[in-house]
């Protein structure tokens, strides 16, 4: 018995280790391509559902998909309804593990054949370069999964004579609730619903549990995995808590529906076995797992948006608006973290521009006037903690561009409150043209950064910035000459020159920040820059 218990623990450990290695390897092998595909194919909740299911089948981990979704929502790459669709897809996609175990792991003794796969994967991991190392990790993990399943089978056969749950009552509500509790506890102990399902499938295959008990255990595993998500979300950001809440409510409701409709499912499986050739045992249990999750998807998908609004009301976001995209959970994915800082910088830039526009018009500062400066400090701190990316990779260009944006926004922020002499001089008729150009530049930049204008908005901002520079360059000598001739009071002239310089600088920094925060920051400027404007 002791050897069987040790064998059971080792089998579970090998299975879990294989899952972790395969998931990490596939995620690293796919890299930004997987993240880009997930974002690209999530336009609607239905597309998001398909993306979530496909991604989970590929990496064999609903947790990995859910963590990625949380990161995307935090970074602003996905709306919350899209994230909910992906969570539903991840719940369905994770049932693929049951099919792999039942169709391959239990029918074919692949443990021996999986050993060379582990060896090849280990060599790739040690001797390969770049993505080959990640592929090796995935291959080794895939092999370990089947070695773990074979070890589990041997352990279950040894334990079936000692702990035979199949001998216990399987009918009645109490029996089903007991089996459900076993599934929840098993998932909490193993910290993986996939491992709990694989263990249940192996137990069913060896006769340690009967089918009804196994079905209830699988339902318990679906419910138990939400507790893991809830624990992971404690202390997390609001998007993380919302995503965890969506996962909990969906799996809990789906599990309860499956428990209530279990007799209906059992009759349906019996019909499928009789008329469609569905194999009894582990394959039927995998089909049951997929069927009740799919039923939950069918019931919830038409109400994704109302469901999302309910969770948003349940967990409102009361944090700082400008930095809501910054979440430490993004730091493990530099490209996503950089996109989060770009969005935070864009919103902070709009807040700076609004403050400058108020100062230009002589309007009192907004009640939250101090927020942009605080947001910029928070962005700088978050940006400094983003791990480096290899030279020449696209995120490197984005990182450099964001450093420029931070620099220009810092300088723009220092001009939010012009000196009193400049405020008075801004009303001077000689600056009317410059004021109009500056207002137009700021309005175009603000709406352009919000994606509310045509694609050529940056050209307009660039032209206005150049025109402000030309006015200052040509107007300054003329004004000084008139002052020297006695036509202008020196104090007034100096105040007008300061205001002229202030208008030129705010136009310049607003333009440069807009350029670096545009959708393609690495692109060259489309309009020639005056020779006296330096980067």
Describe the structure.
With 535 residues, this protein is mainly α. It has two domains: 2-314, no CATH class; 328-517, Methane Monooxygenase Hydroxylase, Chain G, domain 1. The chain contains 22 helices and no strands. It has helices spanning 2-30, 32-40, 45-59, 62-75, 80-93, 96-105, 111-127, 131-159, 173-190, 193-205, 211-233, 238-260, 262-275, 282-300, 304-314, 334-361, 371-384, 394-413, 420-425, 432-449, 457-484, 490-517. Helix 6 (96-105) runs parallel beside helix 10 (193-205) and helix 10 packs antiparallel against helix 11. Mean pLDDT is 79; it is low at 521-535.
Give the helix/strand layout:
Layout lengths: L1 H29 L1 H9 L4 H15 L2 H14 L4 H14 L2 H10 L5 H17 L3 H29 L13 H18 L2 H13 L5 H23 L4 H23 L1 H14 L6 H19 L3 H11 L19 H28 L9 H14 L9 H20 L6 H6 L6 H18 L7 H28 L5 H28 L18
What descriptors fit this protein?
535 residues; disordered C terminus; mainly alpha; single chain; elongated; Methane Monooxygenase Hydroxylase, Chain G, domain 1; 22 helices
């Amino acid at each position: 018995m002791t050897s069987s218990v040790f064998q059971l623990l080792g089998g579970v450990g090998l299975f879990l280790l294989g899952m972790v290695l395969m998931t990490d390897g596939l995620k690293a092998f796919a890299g930004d391509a997987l993240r880009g595909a997930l974002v690209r194919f999530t336009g609607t909740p239905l597309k998001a559902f398909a993306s979530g299911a496909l991604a989970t089948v590929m990496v064999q981990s609903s947790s990995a998909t859910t963590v990625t979704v949380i990161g995307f929502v935090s970074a602003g790459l996905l709306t919350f309804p899209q994230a909910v669709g992906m969570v539903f897809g991840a719940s369905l996609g994770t049932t693929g593990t049951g099919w792999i175990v039942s169709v391959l792991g239990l029918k074919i003794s692949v443990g021996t054949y999986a050993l060379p796969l582990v060896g090849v994967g280990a060599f790739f991991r040690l001797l390969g370069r770049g993505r080959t190392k990640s592929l090796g990790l995935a291959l080794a993990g895939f092999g370990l999964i089947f070695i773990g399943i074979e070890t589990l089978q041997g352990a279950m056969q040894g334990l079936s004579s000692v702990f035979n749950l199949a001998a216990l009552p399987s009918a009645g509500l109490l029996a089903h609730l007991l089996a459900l509790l076993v599934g929840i506890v098993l998932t909490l102990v193993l910290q993986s619903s996939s491992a709990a399902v694989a263990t249940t499938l192996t137990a069913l295959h060896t006769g340690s549990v009967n089918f009804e008990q196994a079905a209830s255990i699988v339902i318990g595993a679906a419910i138990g995995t939400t507790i893991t998500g809830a624990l992971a979300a404690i202390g997390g950001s609001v998007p993380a808590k919302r995503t965890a809440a969506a996962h909990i409510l969906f799996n809990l409701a789906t599990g309860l529906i499956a428990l209530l409709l279990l007799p209906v499912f059992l009759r349906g499986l019996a019909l499928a076995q009789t008329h469609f050739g569905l194999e009894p045992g582990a394959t039927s249990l995998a089909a049951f797992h997929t069927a009740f999750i799919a039923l939950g998807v069918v019931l919830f998908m038409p109400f994704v948006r109302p469901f999302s609004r309910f969770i948003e009301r349940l967990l409102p976001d009361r944090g700082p608006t400008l930095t809501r995209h910054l979440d430490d959970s993004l730091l493990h994915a530099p490209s996503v973290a950089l996109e989060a800082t770009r969005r935070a910088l864009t919103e902070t830039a709009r807040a700076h521009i609004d403050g400058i526009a108020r100062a230009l018009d002589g309007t009192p500062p907004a009640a939250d006037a101090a927020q942009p400066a605080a947001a910029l400090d928070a962005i700088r701190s978050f940006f400094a903690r983003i791990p480096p990316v290899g030279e020449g990779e696209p995120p490197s260009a984005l990182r450099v561009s964001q450093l420029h944006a931070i620099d220009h926004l810092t300088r723009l922020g220092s001009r939010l409150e012009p000196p009193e002499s400049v405020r008075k001089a801004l009303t001077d008729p000689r600056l009317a043209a410059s004021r109009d150009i500056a207002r137009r530049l700021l309005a175009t930049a603000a709406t352009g950064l919000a994606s509310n204008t045509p694609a050529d908005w940056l050209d307009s901002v660039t032209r206005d910035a150049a025109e402000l520079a030309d006015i200052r360059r040509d107007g300054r000598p003329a004004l000084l000459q008139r002052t020297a001739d006695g036509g202008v009071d020196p104090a007034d002239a100096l105040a007008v020159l300061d205001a002229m310089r202030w208008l030129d600088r705010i136009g310049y920094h607003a333009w440069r920040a807009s350029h670096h925060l545009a959708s393609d920051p690495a692109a060259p400027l489309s309009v020639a820059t005056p020779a006296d404007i330096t980067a």
